[in-house]
Design goal:
The protein is mainly beta and about 150 residues long. It has a domain of about 100 residues. The protein is built from two helices and six strands; from the N terminus they run E-E-E-E-E-H-E-H. Strands 1, 2, 3, 4, 5 and 6 form a six-stranded mixed β-sheet that branches. The chain starts with 6 loop residues before the first strand and ends in a 50-residue tail after the last helix.
Length: about 150
């Protein structure tokens, strides 16, 4: 199936329309339909430290009970957003898929575990130039002292 919009987080997601492969098992139970399955898709995003592109494969598993409307009404249950409902005998997998994918994603995706990031002064990617350095900055409160003539013979 094509991936829905917003399947992921800002820096790492499944592109809209990209193929998502689903392997589902639907079981009829007394209360409704039990959906058990897995989904696999390709992720695209960028490293939060160095902004390099990230491309990974993701596989998630999920299980959810979709309750019949008449079972819920017979029990006199109040409206509950936590209960998944069958809608005209159809199962809406999009919220279930979105929850499974977002929860499986890293909070701060990295291109590699030890990514050093970017130089805070000039923006050079430190993984490309590990010996990158800058001269020590002079404290602006003492900068005028550097202009003084240090020759004691005058």
């Amino acid at each position: 199936m094509p991936a829905p919009a917003d399947l992921g987080i800002e820096v790492l997601s499944v592109p809209e329309g990209a193929p998502v492969e689903l392997d589902l098992r639907l079981e009829a139970v007394m209360e409704g339909v039990l959906v058990t399955g897995s989904a696999s898709a390709a992720l695209e995003g960028e490293c939060v430290r160095c902004l390099e592109p990230i491309r990974e494969d993701l596989e998630v598993t999920f299980q959810e009970l979709f309750v019949y409307d008449d079972i819920r009404d017979a029990e006199g249950a109040e409206e509950d957003d936590e209960v998944s409902m069958l809608q005209d005998d159809l199962v809406d997998l999009q919220p279930l898929l979105r929850d499974a994918v977002v929860l499986a994603l890293p909070f701060q995706p990295l291109c590699q575990d030890d990514c050093p990031g970017l130089c805070t002064e000039c923006g050079v990617r430190l993984a490309d130039d590990p010996d990158h350095t800058h001269e020590a900055a002079i404290d602006p409160r003492w900068a005028k002292l550097a202009e003084l003539d240090q020759d004691p013979t005058d």
